[in-house]
Amino acid sequence: MTIVDLLNKLDGLLWGTPLIAFAMILGAYYMIRGKFFPFVHFGHILKNTILAKSGESTKADSDKISPYRAFCLAVGGAVGMGNISGVASAIAVGGPGAIFWMWVWAFFGMMVKTVETSLGLYYRRKGPDGRYNGSAMDYMERGIKGELGLKFGKPLAVLFAISLFLMVLQGSGAYTVGETLNASFGLNLMAVVAVYVLFIVYLIFRGENAIGKIAEKIVPVMCCVYLAATVVILLLNITYLPEMFAGIFRGAFTGTAAVGGFVGSAVSLAIRQGVARSVYSNEAGNGTSPLIHGSANTIHPVRQGLWGAVEVFCDTLIVCTCSGLAILATGTWTTGTTGAALGVLAFTDAFGSFGKYFLGIMTLLFAFTTSTTWYLFYQNILAYLFQKKPGTLKAVQKGFTVAFPLIMLGNAALVYFTGSSADLFWTIVSIVTAFPLFFNMIALIFLRKKFWALLNDYKARYLGIGQVDPNFKLFAEDDPEVMSKIERNLKD
User: Fold this and answer.
1) Which helix (H) or strand (E) holds 138?
2) What is the pLDDT of residues 171-183, one digit of tens each?
């Protein structure tokens, strides 16, 4: 059995029925218990996030970043390869039904990401540099072990941090850039990866502020331009839309028979591909968003959590849906082509040579936001793991700055020189995504009461639902009783 066979077997084991059922049940619990908050109050969410004209959404203090920049950085990490190559891979392997299961997790994910972002803000901490930081590790350690007094909170936080850090093995989009530009321009895949990695190194050395400023400008533009192109494809094939949606729902519950170069898929494969790609794309449930949002300047933890719901909505229910429908509309999904090459084929079919050049450029933009934002994620994870050893932390972070581009090259080289297709790349992505999702969902079970308290307080203050408790503290740091518990229990 080859290493590729072993990886495929591990992927199937990790993304089996237990993990998917666990995720769906937890998502359904939060959505139903929360009375479908992201949808019932969708107007309020938009008004206080992307439609907010000024003030709080753009304000940043020296020790915090603005909510909007946090949103752009988080969307930059989410809206990337999962939206083009990931969706194409899901359809190529799981058939049109995979799109339906992407929607299902996105539906629950809007609530789940609101929960994890809010908790990350509530349990935030002030670092040695005076800056605020919040993360899933913080709500595991400070929430589960600190406030609840459950000792497994600390080990859970460490396991989660290590598993999330291991996502670096997926190469942060470098392979997909090479694959796409190879399909679009005929360029050598590894040569493209090498040049791209050098570009990322340049951006990394410019620092976090530079990355944030670029993300603020590029994320909204790239999403709008890409969406406009997919809408044109749909308009050109509008008569096929009813058939496409019928195929999505039919494939979701009956599987998809072999057609053209497509080998057919079972319902279980459609579910696995759809949920796995949805988690990777919108990052709901895997605990990454608090790493960015935890430093945001916000008036209430749930107010920042609203941005999490918007991220999932924009990423999956809009961008991924348009990508998937564009591929289905052109009929290219039946050719047997997989990965980013399938996306290139779809755009070429619709727009001719312009289509493949357009997608090549868009892939570069999408990949840039993914690679740079994930670099910041990894550095924040290291800051948590070595927070009590500042000297070691500085050395480790410098070492990772050197290692990060080498890992990106190594991931692409593994797929390229083994003669494997993009399926191997997405198998690696699936494997490393499963572990942080599992550990984070465990934490969200134990911290559910804290979130409900935060949500009820937010609804009372800003939606006029319920009574405001003047003694309720919005952040753990402001509550002497909570901080006393955290300080006492973290000493044990």
Assistant:
1) helix 136-138
2) 777 888 888 888 8
